[in-house]
């Protein structure tokens, strides 16, 4: 396609829009693209061949409904309809719910400890949204989520999303979860009638039989003897742990095994009778072959790693993996694997029979909609592996309607998670989905079928892989948290999708674009976020956990309006009172020599800022020493300085000299000859080489982005005023978790990781307000439509009298 032809097509599109006075939002919907994308194309942006094909069909009148019907909207129903995109932030839809309106159901995927869904839950004092289900693979995250939802029966569950087979299983799992959380007797009876309880009971029997066999083997004398003389260091290797995880096999040890991350294992049955679903024997045999193949693949990967070549730690890991493989050849472990094959095949066959053959998806849908429908689906799977996905794979998924058997084209597990996100959209047909990811998610990626933008692939996946026929208007943008009252310069990619029927009802306002156009506010400096916290506990000195609490000090009354709003959010309890104590205000105690380094760093200064690479004096020193080395090599007798010493000094004369001199002013720890940071590994760090690994925050500005790496070390987050790194509670404050949100039941490492991975709840609260207005508008329009339909259908009394 030549650029000239593309320009001609786009000019024809633009001319038709002008001549027929068409709304850009309407045209975009007809073209199945966002208004933002259409505007970008019309203003000269790059256009892919598939988009040009849509424009050709639209110009030729081939697309359904290509003629726009002009509609008149009441200003109160769609206020600000003619506002340009840059002015969307100040538009209000001005719709609020009637008293006693039903709460909107929320599902949070990859939920972590619940940052995204928390912002939705806290909107309108908790009277707008409620989280029905939150799924995450890490139990500490799930436990923290549930600890902070004491009034509900475990809305969060530990689950590996790659396990879900298809739309039917997703929908059944959600409905069973709804019954569990809200004790809905009507729905419980309906699920019982379609035998979901029988399925749960049958899978529980299969699991019970397996764990009884497994624990019987583990408690045998033979197992204990072999296990006792084995090299158990191999059992701790990441590759060995992953081997167990992929097989859903509990880690090998001498203790009793528990279910762990098994789909359906923690779903309670609502039935009082014990039933069993009979699975065809042929299907069990087929699944036994699947189990054999899976086991052989995992063993093969372990053997490859055991024979891997390398030095140091790599060599040690290979030996430890080999030790585990040696143990796996023993009779007790072979007994375990035989029991595993039988269990895995029976479990898989039951799920395949029930969700692919026995249970009808459409029957489930009738139970689901509209009473239990998910209004908002939240989540952001890691999608860095997009580069191995092609559009052909996306299309084949829709044709097969099977999501469990993802082949090599789908790439690594991160791609599988992206497909599972699409699977949940397809199964639950949410009225709105909100997707969050790292800023670089919008980057251009290469696939077997060409180069394109990752968001476009996700949007196409969601549009094309659907059994329910739901389609969405999609918009995306990068949001900088610091511009919206969050004390942190965190930039993240957000994508929102609105059911196209919602957009159609307000077709003069680009609702998807509007939903992400948040109003800006003044920045909130770091000092306003953490100044009222006292000195923290040192981790480990008051016990292993974070449960101890401290009283909050008074905060500055001279704070800006934005800071006051932030502090009101942070300080308010769920019952509306003011929170006066916090837990998890624990930090790592710094080494005395590191504390001295922190004291020397100025606000917002990083390790690399103290380098002197461009120093003229340094350059002269190097030149002079080079000449001296040349002289020593020619005639060593002319100087008392040895050539070796001169060369060693010369090697020190690089940009890190200034940092070395600073470190040499600090007395090293007992037994150490120099400061432990004065090593080549640290001194080489500069711009482009993690030169910000050690940095002091500036209290007068928003913090840098809080990241999960704080679980490993916090040297990039030195307190702006004290010679220590941030505490868990200070990181939570920067991420806008309210002070009542407890992290007291987990350790410091898990707490930092879950906080760093979270979406700031104060940001998601602002997005929630936009989503709520859209849903209220849709409900109001639907209510008016039904009322008008009813008036037309029922004749008035005078007509009846005639």
Verbal overview:
37% of the residues are buried. The chain has 31 helices and 13 strands. It is globular, with a radius of gyration of 31 Å. Helix 5 links the parallel strand 1 and strand 2 (129-136). Helix content is 47%, strand content 8%. The strands form four sheets. The chain has a seven-stranded mixed sheet, sandwiched between helices. It is an alpha/beta fold and 802 residues long.
Average pLDDT figure = 83
Radius of gyration: 31 Å
Secondary structure tally, helices: 31
The geometry reads as globular
Number of strands: 13
Distance between the termini: 69 Å
Strand order of the largest sheet: 3-2-1-4-5-9-8
Short overview:
The chain is an alpha/beta fold and 802 residues long.
Offer a few descriptive terms.
alpha/beta; 13 strands; single chain; disordered C terminus; two-stranded antiparallel ribbon
């Amino acid at each position: 396609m030549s650029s000239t032809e593309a320009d001609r097509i786009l000019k024809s599109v633009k001319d038709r829009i002008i001549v027929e006075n068409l709304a850009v939002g309407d045209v975009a919907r007809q073209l199945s693209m966002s208004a933002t994308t259409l505007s970008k194309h019309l203003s000269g942006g790059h256009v892919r061949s598939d988009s040009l094909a849509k424009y050709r069909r639209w110009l030729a009148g081939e697309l359904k409904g290509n003629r726009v019907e002009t509609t008149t909207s009441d200003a109160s129903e769609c206020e600000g309809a003619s506002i340009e995109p840059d002015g969307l932030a100040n538009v209000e839809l001005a719709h609020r719910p009637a008293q006693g309106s039903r709460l909107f159901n929320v599902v949070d995927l990859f939920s972590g400890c619940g940052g995204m869904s928390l912002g939705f839950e806290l909107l309108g004092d908790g009277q707008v949204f409620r989280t029905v289900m939150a799924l995450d693979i890490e139990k500490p995250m799930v436990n923290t989520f549930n600890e902070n939802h004491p009034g509900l029966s475990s809305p969060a569950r530990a689950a590996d999303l790659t396990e879900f087979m298809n739309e039917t299983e997703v929908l059944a799992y959600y409905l069973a979860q709804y019954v569990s959380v809200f004790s809905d007797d009507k729905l419980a009876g309906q699920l019982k009638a379609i035998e979901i309880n029988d399925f749960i009971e049958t899978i529980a029997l299969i699991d019970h039989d397996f764990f009884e066999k497994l624990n019987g083997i583990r408690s045998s004398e033979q197992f204990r003897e072999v296990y006792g003389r084995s090299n158990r260091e191999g059992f701790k290797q990441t590759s060995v742990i992953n081997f167990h995880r992929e097989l859903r096999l509990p880690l090998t040890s001498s203790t009793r095994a528990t279910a762990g991350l098994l789909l359906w294992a923690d779903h309670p049955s609502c039935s009082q009778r014990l039933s069993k679903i009979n699975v065809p024997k042929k299907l069990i045999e087929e699944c036994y072959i699947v189990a054999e193949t899976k086991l052989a693949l995992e063993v093969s990967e372990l053997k490859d790693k055991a024979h891997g070549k390398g030095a140091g730690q790599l060599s040690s890991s290979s030996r430890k993996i080999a030790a585990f493989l040696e143990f796996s050849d023993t009779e007790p472990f072979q007994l375990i694997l035989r029991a595993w094959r039988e269990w895995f095949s029976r479990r898989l066959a039951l799920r395949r029979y029930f969700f692919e053959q026995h249970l009808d998806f459409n029957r489930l849908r009738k139970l689901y909609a509209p009473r239990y429908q998910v209004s908002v689906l939240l989540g952001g799977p890691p999608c860095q592996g997009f580069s191995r996905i092609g559009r052909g794979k996306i299309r084949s998924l829709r044709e097969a309607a099977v999501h469990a058997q993802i082949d090599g084209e789908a790439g690594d597990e991160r791609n599988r998670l992206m497909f599972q996100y699409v699977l949940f959209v397809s199964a639950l047909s949410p009225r709105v989905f909100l997707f969050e990811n790292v800023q670089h998610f919008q980057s251009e990626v290469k696939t077997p079928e060409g180069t394109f933008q990752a968001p476009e692939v996700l949007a196409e996946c969601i549009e094309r892989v659907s059994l329910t026929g739901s389609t969405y208007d999609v918009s995306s943008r990068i949001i900088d948290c610091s511009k919206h009252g969050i004390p942190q310069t965190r930039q993240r990619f957000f994508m929102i999708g609105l059911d196209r029927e919602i957009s159609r009802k307000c077709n003069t306002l680009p609702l998807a674009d509007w939903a992400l156009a948040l109003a800006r506010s003044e920045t909130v400096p770091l000092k306003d976020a953490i100044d009222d916290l006292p000195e923290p506990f040192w981790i480990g000195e008051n016990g292993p956990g974070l449960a101890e609490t401290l009283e909050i000090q008074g905060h500055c009354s001279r704070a800006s309006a934005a800071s006051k709003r932030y502090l009101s959010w942070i300080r308010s309890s769920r019952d509306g009172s003011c929170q006066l104590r916090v837990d998890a205000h624990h930090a790592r105690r710094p080494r005395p020599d590191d504390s001295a380094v922190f004291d020397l760093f100025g606000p917002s200064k990083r390790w690399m800022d103290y380098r002197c690479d461009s120093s003229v004096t340094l350059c002269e020193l190097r030149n002079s020493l080079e000449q001296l080395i040349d002289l020593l090599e020619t005639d060593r007798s002319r100087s008392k300085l040895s050539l070796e010493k001169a060369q060693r000094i010369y090697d020190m004369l690089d940009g890190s000299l200034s940092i070395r001199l600073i470190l040499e002013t600090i007395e090293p720890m007992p037994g150490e000859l120099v400061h432990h940071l004065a090593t080549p590994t640290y001194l080489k760090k500069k711009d482009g080489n993690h030169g910000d690994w050690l940095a002091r925050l500036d209290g007068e500005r928003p913090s840098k982005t809080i990241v999960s790496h704080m679980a490993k070390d916090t040297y990039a987050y030195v307190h702006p005023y004290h010679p220590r790194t941030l505490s868990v509670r200070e990181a939570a404050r920067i991420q806008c978790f309210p002070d009542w949100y407890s992290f007291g039941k987990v350790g410091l490492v898990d707490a930092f990781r879950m906080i760093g991975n979270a979406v700031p709840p104060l940001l998601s609260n602002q997005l929630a307000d936009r989503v709520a207005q859209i849903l209220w508008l849709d409900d109001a329009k639907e209510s008016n439509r039904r009322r008008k339909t009813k008036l037309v259908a029922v004749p008035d009394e005078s007509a009846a009298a005639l």
